[in-house]
Each structure stands twice: as C-alpha cells, then as structure tokens.
Amino acid sequence: MPRPIPTAPLARAVLLAVLCGAAFLEGMDVAMFNVALPSIRADLGLTTAEVQWIVSGYVVSYGALMLVGGRVADAYGHRRVFLVGLAAFIGFSLVGGLAGDAWLVIAMRVLTGACAAFLMPAGLAILNTTYPAGHVRDRAVLIYAGIGAAGFSVGLVAGGVLSLLGWRWVFLFPAGVGLLLFAGASALIPRDDVRPRASRVDYPGAVLIAAAVAFAMLGIESLAHHAGPFPPVAWTVAAVAAFLLFIARLRRAPEPLLSLAVLSQSSAAPAVIGAASLAAGFAGFQLVFVIYLQESLGWSALHSALAMLVVAMDAVLAPLVTPLLVRRFGVWPVATAGLGFALLAYTLFLPLDGTDHYLDFLPGLVAVGLAFTLAYGPLTIAATERAPREDQGVVSAVLYTCFQFGAALGIAGASALHSSATETIGDGLTALKIALIAPIAAAALGFASAVVTTIRRRSRPRPAASVPATSPTERSA
C-alpha cells in the first residue's frame, strides 16, 4: 500500500511545496550559471573552454549518474537518498561559493550535478509513492512538473540579478534555499518503509551506463561548443561500446539496473520520446532566440532573460488548468496539444527580419509557455504512473535523463546548423533562421509521436468491467 500523506491540509501543502521547491531549485540553479559565466570568467581569468566546464561538468555528471541515482533511491529508500542528495547539494554549493581557485569551482559544479542526479529521481518517486493514485496524485504531479519547469525561466532572470551582486551569490543563494528545503523535507517526508537492499544496485551495470551516458554527453558538448580533447565521433564510438556492454550486462545480472519490461509496462517509452523532443526543441530555440536578441537587436543579457520570463507562465497555469484538462480529456490528448503548441511556437519565429519588437515575439513565447503547461506534466504522469513502486526511482531517472539528452541534442543541433550556415552564407539573420530548423524538427518529431500514441490508445479495447481503471489518467491511457 502507498504510504499515507499527512492528513492536515497545511502539512500536505507544505510537503508538496518542499518537493516542488527542490525541482524548482535544480532548474533555477542550471539557468543561473548560464547567465553568470561571463562574471566568473572575468574574475577567475578562465579561458572560454575552461569556463564552459562550469556548465558542462554539471550537465555531464547529472546525466551520467541519473539512472544510477534512481536505482539507488529504489534500493536504499527515496527519503534517505533525497535528504542525503539535498544535503550534499547544499554543501558543495557553499564550497563553490567560497572557493578561490578555478579548478575547485569547476569540481564543485561537477559534484553538484552528481547530487542532483540522486536528488531529482528520488523527489519524483516520493511524490508518486506517497500520494494515492488518481486525481490527487495527478494534480500533485502536474503542480510539481509545472513549478519545476518554471525554475529554468526564473533562473535566467535570477542569475542576471545575482551576478550584479557578485557571481559567488549564484552558488550561495541555492545553498540558502536548500537549507530551508532540507528542514521542511526532514520534518514532512514520510519515513521509508523499505529496508536498504544494496543487492538491488547492479554496480557493474551502473558503471557501464554511467560511462555510456557520460561519453554521449561529452560528444554532444564537443559538437555544440566545437572544442574538446577528442572529436565527437570518438566520444560516440566510446558511448556506443559502453552501451552495448551495458545491454549485455542486463541479460546476465540477477537484478539488472534497468528492466526494459518495466519501461514497457509503465508506458514510459512514448512519454520519454515526447519529453526528449520537448527539451530539445526548447533548448535549441532558446539558443537561437538569445543570439538573435543580443547580436541582431543589441539587447543585454538581462533584457533577454526578462523577455523569456513569459515562458514561466506554466508555473501558474499548470497547477490550475492542466489538471482540469487531464481529467476531461486524458493525459495523451493534453500532452499532444502541448507538443503541437511547441511546433507552432518555433514556426512563428521564422519571419524574423531584424526590426522586430517585443510584441512581435509575444505570440510565439506564449505558445512556448502553453507547450510546457500542457505537455511537461502529462508526459511526467505518463512516464511514471504505471511503474511498480519499487522501480519508481529508476523510471523517474529515465525521464530526467531523456530531458537532459534532449536539451543537449537540441543545443548541439541548433549550434551546428548556425555555425555551418554562417560559414557558407555569411548572413547572420539567414543563419539563425536555418538554425531554427533544429527546434522545429524536434517539435515535429514529438508531436507526431504523441499523435500516433493517442490514436493507438484510443483504438485499444476498453478494459474488462472486473478490472476498472483506478484513475481518470489510467482510463485515458
């Protein structure tokens, strides 16, 4: 039986706020450093390649350890791993904010990314195993996803403001917020009702999948930033080799790190495709849009971040509107509509001509906000709702890993198209429009996949009356 949630309305609200706060903090933390990099570079005297590792190191360790973090949470207890991950996140952020050497700053970002890899899947697993299946859980997941997605947009502005006070505040502010969240989490998250089982973690498999994901992320980073000790093809070959060894390990391990059957039963496969496309489209679009604002229109970094703030409308709309739509239409029709808005949004930016005003951008930015409002939460539900309780952590990790991969691929694709078009054509505006092909293609792939999934699920026969669906979400699926 699922562990009960606190019965007092205030305690229930605070518990959800703590979990949402952790997701919001992680998204905001990533975005703030994107804005603060110039200040860090100037103060520490870093090269472009060195300063990029403040972001890339976080992303690589986060992506590489996500599946391991999810399985460790399942094996040792979601609450335990959440609290340990959050405490370590706070500690490494404090050290990074006080560090005087560049290598220590970069090392703290790598370790902070590793902490997030354990923290995030544990948090989503706590939510899914604490709240009862049905409308209560669906609404909680939608609120969690909406606020978590808004963290990145808010972080862009927060990073600009904190950078004015000094780049160290970009480390110290998340540590302070994390301390408040840790106090709330310690008091409100129900204790784990499972005994730690180290045998559930296949450590050889963990090493192989961590290596595969790390090599793949390094290859994407090398392609996106056109720098690194090895070419992208070398990283790709290493990633494929490690992944094939991981697949072979899955067949031999007594308790494999990841069961493909679990993914199939949980309906996660189409959901993670949609999640990856949503992240890829937005990441690629953001790169193109920010370049356009700053290089073509001459906007500052802070003004560019404020322009993107409207995308965070999902923090308000997702908790209020999306649950009603999911109850009325089901998870996949709502997610499909969201992915359709993403495709519409990026297409609306094709007529850019270098003389635009903010009101010209507003319809497209609103469409991006609606895309996340309607797609992010329902895709999270679809990926995790049917996973067994003992596998919630690893299935949540698969979802977050696909978000990371999608975002990295979206940036790499848009960057590669932009660089190639700039070299061959020379017209900066035309090159940006060509780069928009990457987010449009990603959104089109996600939308097409969601349409097919929706049609297939509608065509399936209804379940027998003796085995009723337990929630509106399951009935739609």
UniProtKB/TrEMBL annotation:
Protein's UniProt keywords contain Lipid biosynthesis: no
InterPro entries recorded: MFS, MFS_dom, MFS_trans_sf
Membrane topology term: Multi-pass membrane protein
Keywords annotated in UniProt: Cell membrane, Membrane, Transmembrane, Transmembrane helix, Transport
PROSITE patterns documented for this protein: MFS (PS50850)
Residues passing through the membrane, by range: 51-69, 81-100, 106-129, 141-165, 171-189, 201-220, 232-250, 271-293, 299-317, 329-349, 361-382, 394-414, 434-455
Matches recorded under SUPFAM superfamilies: MFS general substrate transporter
Pfam families, alphabetized: MFS_1
Signal peptide: none
Subcellular location: Cell membrane
CDD domains, alphabetized: MFS_MMR_MDR_like
Domain Major facilitator superfamily (MFS) profile, residue spans: 15-458
Keyword Transmembrane helix among UniProt keywords: yes
Classification via PANTHER family: BLR6921 PROTEIN, MAJOR FACILITATOR SUPERFAMILY MULTIDRUG TRANSPORTER MFSC
Protein name: MFS transporter
Organism this protein belongs to: Microbacterium wangchenii
Native organism taxonomy: Bacteria, Bacillati, Actinomycetota, Actinomycetes, Micrococcales
